[in-house]
Design goal:
The protein has 3 helices and 5 strands, in the order H-H-E-E-E-E-E-H. By secondary structure, the chain is of the alpha+beta class. The chain has a 5-stranded antiparallel sheet with strand order 1-2-3-4-5. A hairpin with a 4-residue loop joins strand 4 and strand 5.
């Protein structure tokens, strides 16, 4: 039934394009084409939006401040951000490679336990974890002073 409706619409549109002019009762636009509304899609179930974990503005500012200093020093070259349903990742690359040099991870499920922030190295070893992102980032940039 839906295919028949689409064929009917296509036939009407081809009538509009022919030099004979528009189909009776419809006004063409400047190019001689008419638009036909065929209705909404047949009852498609609404998919619930999956929540994701992301870094907020303050967290990104802290991470990018350290990243910017290291890029300026020529140590790091690229980054990637992944926002998943259970965690957010900021991966740091020294050069074009398959594996990141460091990964800054935010996992809110660990907030009450060891802290929601952690940094892993290329081998997957956890270098530091904690509740305060600025303290955790000191592993990457020891010269960074905590203000607050």
């Amino acid at each position: 039934m839906r295919t028949e409706r689409l064929l009917e619409v296509a036939a009407r549109m081809s009538d509009d394009i022919t030099p004979g002019g528009p189909v009776q009762g419809r006004q063409p636009n400047e190019a001689g084409l008419s638009l036909v509304h065929v209705g909404e899609p047949a009852n498609q179930p609404a998919r619930p939006v999956q929540p994701i974990v992301a870094f907020d503005r303050r967290e990104l500012m802290q991470i990018l401040a350290v990243y910017g200093r290291k890029v300026g020093a020529g140590e790091w070259r690229d980054y990637a951000m992944d926002f998943l349903k259970d965690r957010a990742l900021f991966s740091i690359y020294a050069r074009v490679s398959e594996r990141p040099l460091y990964v800054v991870e935010k996992n809110p499920k660990l907030r009450a336990k060891q802290g929601q922030y952690l940094i892993t190295n290329q081998q997957g070893r956890i270098l530091k974890r904690g509740h305060d992102l600025s303290q955790v980032l000191r592993v990457l940039d020891p010269d960074l002073a905590v203000v607050g």
